[in-house]
Amino acid sequence: MTVAIYSHPACLEHQLLPGHPESPDRLRAVLAALDHERYAALLRVDAPLATREQLARVHHADLIADVLDGPDLPYRQIDPDTAMTSGSAEAAMRAAGAVCAAIDQVMTGDICRAFCAVRPPGHHATADTAMGFCLFNSVAVGAAHAIAAHGLSRVAIMDFDVHHGNGSQDIFWSDARVLYASTHQSPLYPDTGRTDEHGRTGNIVNAPLPPGAGFAEFRNAIELIVLPALNAFAPELLIISAGFDAHRLDPLANLNLEADDYRWVTGQLVALADRHCGGRIVSSLEGGYSLAALRDSTQAHVDALMR
Asked: Is 247 a known active-site residue?
């Protein structure tokens, strides 16, 4: 059983203003966490660039052109939270390309599971709008690639980032081939993800958690809401939006998970993937803004993927 890590130095070149929480130090912390002898057997793969064709399956041409062909400025503000610098376009293309390439290897059986250690994150980017630190929606690009390139008809995205993945939900709102499930704090940015948001075909599953919630509430949401929906859907591939900002140390939210809670939920998802899709999982880094929590949670998550 081979697990791969996808990353690329270009993902460090998306450099925002000093003090911005979505900094290259996040990825450095993740890579340092995986620079340990117990991860020596992991396959290390350079993330390729996504193609415009892959991006265009989920993003409008105007957004793609704005990110890839817009003014090459040292700094360009997109919204109050989101900006671009000269290295941002390549970083975003490598992030989306990592997920697509990992899916290719998982689907051909070259590897069983993968973790994409990339940035910027992606799950807030909608079909036509870059927002919430996100330029392209990497997991959405990957899910659409799995359908187009590998003929899948049931792809699940599980998102345990503390912020709801409004972009992923928006992109697949009417697509019965993709189940999007999310646990997240509510209320919190982006103020989406209510329990009554089901998608046009019932393919959206939201399990919001109140501020201050910890493992007991998170476990109930996973066991009573998320896992039953995923089991009923029986995915042919499972994609994880792996945000680690529900950790109690994270400065941008108010949940109280620990690193071992990510080990637990990843183990549950591995067992589900083993049951339905030959263990095939591709996970991609989303949020997580405490470097200590990010380091420990990444190790717990990858440990469980290696099980």
From this structure: no
Other C-beta atoms closer than 10 Å to the C-beta of 121 total 30
Side by side, the strands of the sheet bearing 281-285 are 43-46, 3-7, 113-116, 281-285, 237-242, 155-159, 178-185, 204-209
φ, ψ at 124 (rounded to 5°): -90, -15
State the Cα angle at 224 between 282 and 239, rounded to 5°: 10
Q: Tell me 175's DSSP state.
A: -
pLDDT tens series, the chain, 307 aa? 799 999 999 999 999 999 999 999 999 999 999 999 999 999 999 999 999 999 999 999 999 999 999 988 899 999 999 999 999 999 999 999 999 999 999 999 999 999 999 999 999 999 999 999 999 999 999 999 999 999 999 999 999 999 999 999 999 999 999 999 999 999 999 999 999 999 999 999 999 999 999 999 999 999 999 999 999 999 999 999 999 999 999 999 999 999 999 999 999 999 999 999 999 999 999 999 999 999 999 999 999 999 8
Asked if residues 193 and 164 have their Cβ atoms less than 8 Å apart, the reply is yes
* Identified catalytic residue from 14, 59, 123, 124: 124
CA 123 to mean position of chain CA atoms: 6
pTM summary value: 0.98
Helix axes 259-276, 291-305, angle to 10 degrees: 30
Report the distance separating Cα 215 and Cα 213, nearest Å. 7
Stated as kind and residue range, the H or E segment containing 260 is: helix 259-276
